[in-house]
């Protein structure tokens, strides 16, 4: 079912791509049909095939990003492009362009700053069976660490307002960029929405760029770094607790000997225990200090986020409507 959104909004479709020559033209055409007046941007991330040529032939604005990794591409897109509403998807055709109006509709009617298309049937493809456990594990870990705002932190199909895009720091370089977006929204309590959408299979000849173990390790590392940045008291408190337990393990028998004999026969063990105890105290104090710093940074990010104009509009209807396209200004360098 086709949905049309009312309102005078500029819409930009963002498609980060790496070696997607077999699908990108079809994806661009379908987004053009779903959002006739939107500007479609394809950022080619050093593809070795004809991705850029086919995207340009299909009518997309094509730019090359030389830094390898989806995070670098998203950071460049968010910096380069000005619009009222942004739609981010993949160039492999697994996300249906026909669902984009539903994402925009959700963004407007719920007055959110990010709408996430959660992937319905993401593990139905046998080729993704190896990722099913990781998806469940990381989503459960996210809820434990950062909150219950999201049920699918890895979805790459999202709609954003300009206020979200221009306040998002985008420090990660790879596939963990979606996790960083989710943490940014959770930390600043930014209004977000989710809508369940079908997740398609890759066409024959299109291979996934996701490495189960390498990217899984990078995402886990990103979890740790984001926890350190946003919840330093909790992060360093866990380290302090572990060191304290280990210190107590080594310290207890030495103290027992001292009470019984008045001597410290195992001086190296005692010194190790005291060192671990002092390190534990140091980690605890570090967490306390950085917690104050983190709260100040969060307040500054929140103030900057609120300084940007909110999306004006609160309803959607099913009727033909014209869009105001964003400026189609190409960067002067690095164009593919």
Automatic annotation (TrEMBL):
Q: Which UniProt keywords apply?
A: Membrane, Transmembrane, Transmembrane helix
Is-annotated flag, keyword Transmembrane helix? yes
Q: Where does the chain cross the membrane?
A: 235-256, 268-290
Q: Please report the stretch or stretches of sequence annotated as the Glycosyltransferase 2-like domain.
A: 13-165
Checking Pfam families in the record gives: Glycos_transf_2
| Claim: ATP-binding is one of the keywords in the record | no
Q: What is this protein called?
A: Glycosyltransferase
């Amino acid at each position: 079912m086709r949905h049309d959104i009312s309102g005078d909004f500029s819409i930009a479709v963002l498609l980060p791509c790496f070696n997607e020559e077999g699908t990108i033209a079809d994806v661009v055409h379908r987004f053009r049909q779903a959002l006739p007046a939107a500007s479609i941007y394809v950022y080619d991330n050093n593809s070795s095939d004809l991705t850029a040529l086919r995207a340009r032939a299909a009518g997309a604005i094509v730019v090359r990003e030389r830094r390898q990794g989806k995070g670098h591409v998203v950071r460049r897109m968010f910096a380069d492009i000005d619009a009222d509403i942004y739609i981010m998807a993949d160039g492999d055709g697994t996300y249906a362009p026909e669902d984009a109006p539903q994402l925009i509709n959700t963004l407007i009617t719920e007055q959110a700053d990010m709408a996430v298309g959660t992937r319905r049937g993401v593990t139905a493809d046998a080729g993704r069976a190896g990722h099913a456990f990781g998806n469940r594990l990381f989503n459960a870990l996210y809820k434990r660490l950062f909150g219950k705002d999201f049920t699918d932190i890895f979805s790459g199909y999202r709609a954003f307002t300009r206020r979200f895009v221009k306040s998002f720091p985008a420090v990660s370089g790879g596939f963990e960029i979606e996790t960083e977006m989710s943490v940014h929204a959770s930390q600043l309590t930014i209004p977000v929405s989710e809508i369940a959408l079908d997740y398609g299979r890759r066409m024959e000849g299109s291979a996934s760029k996701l490495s189960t173990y390498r990217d899984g390790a990078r995402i886990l590392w990103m979890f740790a770094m984001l926890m350190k940045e946003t919840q330093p008291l909790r992060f360093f408190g866990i380290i302090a607790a572990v060191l304290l337990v280990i210190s107590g393990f080594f310290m207890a028998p030495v103290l027992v000997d001292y009470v019984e004999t008045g001597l410290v026969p195992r001086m190296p063990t005692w010194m190790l225990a005291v060192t671990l105890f002092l390190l534990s105290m140091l980690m605890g104090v570090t967490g306390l200090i950085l917690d104050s710093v983190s709260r100040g940074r969060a307040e500054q990010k929140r103030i900057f986020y609120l300084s940007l104009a909110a999306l004006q509009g609160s309803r959607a209807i099913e009727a033909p409507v014209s869009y105001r396209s964003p400026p189609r200004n190409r960067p002067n360098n690095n164009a593919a």
